[in-house]
Amino acid sequence: MKNHLVRTHRSAEPFPREEHLAWRIAEVAADPVEVAAETAEMIVNRIIDNAAVAAASITRRPVANARAQALTHPYQPGATVFGVEGRFSPEWAAWANGVAVRELDFHDTFLAAEYSHPGDNIPSILAVAQHAGRSGRDLIRALATGYEIQVDLVRAICLHEHKIDHVAHLGPSAAAGIGTLLGLDTETIYQAIGQALHTTTATRQSRKGEISSWKAYAPAFAGKMAVEAVDRAMRGEGAPSPIWEGEDGVIAWLLGGPKAEYSVPLPGPGEPKRGILDTYTKEHSAEYQSQAPIDLAFRLRERVGDLDQIASIVLHTSHHTHYVIGTGSGDPQKFDPAASRETLDHSIMYIFAVALQDGTWHHERSYAPERAQRPDTVALWNKISTAEDAEWTRRYHSTDPNEKAFGARAEITLKSGEVITDELAVADAHPLGARPFAREQYIAKFRTLAEGVIEPAEQDRFLDAAQRTPELAPAELSGLTFTVSDEVPARSPQSPKGLF
Do 148 and 273 meet the contact criterion of CB atoms below 8 Å apart? Predict the structure, then answer.
């Protein structure tokens, strides 16, 4: 990996295009390097993972509405949409599938200087692959690029510090991945990356306060914009540049300011793209920084015994966890029993209370209104707070994968004055955890979330296609989806008709 210094440049300052971050990313995307076997294996795992969480969310209102929008844009050759037959315009397929994948906050994650869900790259890149008649091998190469670029940007450039939403790294990574998929030249990919970044940079209010369904829509929008950006760039249309480093660019006005510097690592020429291997998926349907605390709560249940005897719980954790999903956020909604699922998903206090009470976690039952409004849950919930711990923050930012951690130390004070403490650095499903996820676990997750949604024979067909992704011919790439019976979408809440 080579580190590239990125900073603002005055308009009058010499700054060759070949030194722009967008150009360097485009060079990585255009590099025809082969994909390592372990990278391809993990990409297949994440294709399965995305389909699993899409199956679990297929009847939810935001997903149904996004799907309804896509279905009004049939197109040939087009791309597939989860749950239905037919082919649709690729940008709209990317939109619908992106919402389905993101809705439950249940797919893969990478946390460093910024947050990310790199699996958000898959819907847009897959849609274009299906539409453009590319092979499974082409798809694997493209997804390796999408993951690599997003991971590298996340390692180096913090967005949330400046209240910019993390999907600002997704637009460029998806555009780069599509560039790899189509074998585009560096210039075209460069222009697409600039457009994608320019159109997908927004504030973090989508993840603050009363969190709405736009939390799921935002990554899908970034993927849709990436598809459209590539289309325009292929037609010869350009982008604002230098998009990151310009005098009125992203760094100068949206991030650290004119004097800020970032060191962005990128693979060198001929260097394999291995970024996906540093990412991890979720065993529990909750924000990633709550994965280890959920497992910790399960472990503490027996030691605590009677939960009514708890006087207070303090979760000592990283800066990120404290300020994003903890009491450091200052969001009263994180203690509101009537809050949306999206808000409860970003309340470590709620999550720890329910995990401690139930000893299990479910993507629907754990967030149900009747579950959140139980008096004993509300009482326990309000006894929980978070505190930033410098050591947890240091480990969160560590570049050593054996030390990097997203956990917490729980300090439970009982009414008797007894204090029970325990800690967990990484979730059980993490590569360094007690039960690391491998192909078997990804398939089990798919089977669990597909139950009652996808017929068993269709589950088998999809899993067979997914596991053969590297060998799929272009005509077979449409198999990387699933259909459901007409009865399943009928369970979705009814919404008013929109424009389409």
Answer: yes
The helix (H) or strand (E) run that includes residue 7 is strand 2-7
Q: How far apart are CA 393 and CA 98, in angstroms?
A: 31
Give Cβ neighbours of residue 487 (< 8 Å, ≥ 6 apart). none
Which pLDDT does position 80 carry in this prediction? 98
SS (H, E, C) 235-254: CCCCCCCCCCCCCCCHHHHC
Question: Tokens 């209240």 map to which residue?
Answer: 163
Q: What CA–CA distance (Å, rounded) separates 92 from 124?
A: 9
Alpha carbon distances (Å) from 417 to 311, 378, 409, 423: 8, 22, 18, 20
| pLDDT, average across residues 165-184 | 98
Is pTM, for the whole model, over 0.90?
yes
- β-sheet bridge partners, residue 385: 314
Distance, CA of 409 to CA of 387 (rounded, Å): 10
Short-list 467, 120, 56, CA closest to 281: 120
Q: Is 186 helix (H, G, I), strand (E, B) or coil?
A: helix
**Chain centre distance of CA 116:** 5
Closest C-alpha to 260, from 159, 192, 149, 399: 159
> In the chain, what percentage of residues exceed pLDDT 70?
100
Beta pairing partners, 408: 317, 424
Nearest of 32, 284, 46 to residue 151 by alpha carbon: 46
Between CA 115 and CA 167 the distance in angstroms is: 9
Handedness of CA 398, 402, 407, 410 (dihedral sign): negative
Which one, of 231, 267, 47, lies nearest residue 139 by Cα? 47
User: Cis omega before residue 242 (within 30°)?
Assistant: yes
Three-state DSSP class for residue 294: helix
